[in-house]
Amino acid sequence: MRRLTLAFLAAAAVLGAQRFHTAVGVTERGSPIRAAVAWEALQFELPKPAVLLVGGLDGSRKSTDVVNAFLRGGLAGEDFAVSAIPNALPDGLSSPARAAVVADFPPEGVAYGGRNPEARYLRRFIGMHAPDLVVEVRDSGASGGLTQAPAAGNAPAGVGSVSTLEFMLADTEENAAQRLLGAIRSALAELSAVRRPSAAREEMRRRLRRDPVEIAEQLETAYGHRLDQVAYIPALALIGRLRLDDLTASRSRLADVEKIAAPYLSGTPTMGERVSGSILSGHLLFADLYEYTGKPAYLDLVRRAADLGFNADGSPRRSMPFHNEMSDAVFMGCAILARAGRLTGEARYFRMALRHLRFMQALDLREDGLYRHSPLDEAAWGRGNGFPALGLALALSDWPEDRPDRKMPLAAFREHMAALVRRQDETGAWHQVIDRVESYREFTATAMIGFALTRGLRRGWLDRREFESAADRAWYALKTRIAPDASLVDVCRSTGKQPSLRAYFDREAILGRDDRGGAMALLAATERAYWQRER
To answer: What domain count does the chain have?
Structure first.
């Protein structure tokens, strides 16, 4: 924990600034909602109070100007760390539209698409930033605001409550920033007499104190207990439980996972009428069970999936089927093929994995090293990059080092990791659209890329000097987004190929329990546990 704090502060020192500039989200009209975040505010365990200033909700330029003046003046000093959203409504909305956004606190419904996304972005940002105090700066002539409807008072993002302060501007004044400083200090003094830090900040501290095994055990209470369909989501959660069994030197979970998988050994088809890439990769569970038990029936099921890469005469197909042109298929096809190759010793599976990877890269790999989700649009969707990262990490784990055809996927993995690390958010997460900072910080992309980085470090594929800090920061971000009850923050819902950048912006960001997010979190947490045990 202390080492992660020092890493964040070292990054701030390198940048030579107290704050970094980012975005909270994107407006309905497509404008980024800008923010300046104090580096120290991300260090939830530090004693310095954290304050978040919000301007612009009153529809006036005056409140935005005062917040910016406060930042420029460096008025916080040693008293507290201050972050700010100078203009929460950057489109300059009319009064009726502004009233609708303000009235939407606390927002209900799907985040972040639909009408008034600004309210949802602001709400989730407050929760994940977890300040001790939110200060809304407003023109005295404006009505309503965060303090009128409990914007921060009832656990935003499910984290914990945050106190709010309304700072009203006079009609004409030249010392507004200085007066604001006094108001903040008075409010913090009052909070210190009652309770400080905020409930939200205390919750963040509790989350960060957990070790990877503890987090995996908390996740296990909600995920990995059913296999209604042999698909990657339930399969990866069950694999996560098997890994947790290994980490805790127990075999109780193995018996339970075998019981859950038993119907598929007794004649229940693993592939129904609607076979997909998700179904193919779901067979990874049987590969793990074969390695744990040595039962040939499990290996037969692995072959059944991997053999779909070949024609009836044994010749390789152009690619694995069911790819739908989406970058997801790097994971869906390559991982099961490489696993089949290692378990059977048949080189044809590795050759097919390489063939499939090249096919998918020709469709979706961009010149900047990121993957477009599909040829339909250039957007580098977050999970659309998480899938290739996870898929190659798993495939390389099974690919014999002495095979010449391993060089290409290893180089592809390293190049992709380098491109992703360049786009990592300052909080440690990756965005819903990797290279668009105004898109939300997405949970599954962070878990999958974090897993891939950690696996690459564990196996020696990645240079620790270049990648270890990124893996540490990714884990830091994940810990803050996993609640003890296995609820998660901002898991992008199931997503086929989308026609536009905006469509990716507006995909639902789930707050709460989610099977896909839980499965990826279990993989990331157990991989982190292995890494910490080995270091």
So the answer is: 2
Q: Are residues 392 and 413 in the same domain?
A: yes
pLDDT at 16: 45
C-alpha–C-alpha distance, residues 76 and 36, integer Å: 14
- Residues 387 and 350 grouped into a single domain: yes
Last residue of a domain, one of 173, 207, 241: 207
In CATH, what number is assigned to the domain containing residue 388?
Answer: 1.50.10.10
Final residue belonging to a domain, choices 150, 179, 207: 207
Lowest pLDDT segment from 112-121, 149-158, 323-332, 515-524: 149-158
- The model's pTM is 0.95
Give the Cα separation of 252 and 55 in Å (integer): 54
Q: Are residues 429 and 354 in the same domain?
A: yes
Q: Supply the DSSP symbol for 315.
A: P
* CATH number, domain containing residue 17: 3.40.630
Inform me whether the pLDDT recorded for 5 exceeds 90: no
For the record, the structure tokens of 203 come out as 């919750």
Tokens 């940048």 belong to residue:
15
Together in a domain, 190 and 292: no
What are the pLDDT digits (tens) for 7-22? 555 554 444 468 999 9
80-128, pLDDT tens digit by residue?
Answer: 999 999 999 998 765 555 666 666 667 777 899 877 889 899 999 999 9
Supply the pLDDT for residue 141: 66
SS3 content of the chain, % helix, strand, coil (to 5): 55, 10, 35
Residues 265 and 167 in one domain: no
Same-domain check for residues 180 and 248: no
What's the pLDDT score for residue 274? 83
Backbone angles phi, psi at 433, to 5 degrees: -115, 115
Three-state SS annotation for 336-395: HHHHHHHHHCCHHHHHHHHHHHHHHHHHHECCCCCECCECCECCCEHHHHHHHHHHHHHH
Tokens of 383: 């999970």
* pLDDT, greater one: 152 or 398: 398
> Rounded distance, CA 398 to CA 392, Å?
10
Q: How does pLDDT run across 476-502, given as a tens digit for each residue? A: 999 999 999 999 999 999 999 999 999
Distance CA 358, CA 338 (A): 15
Whole-angstrom distance, CA of residue 96 vs CA of residue 208:
41
Amino acid 510: pLDDT: 96
Same domain, 455 and 312: yes
Tokens standing for residue 216: 């995996």
Q: 232 and 152: one domain?
A: no
Distance CA 336, CA 330 (A): 10
**Of 41, 70, 73, nearest to 55 (Cα)?**
70
Pairing of strands 509-512, 19-26: unpaired
Q: What range defines the domain where residue 268 resides?
A: 210-534
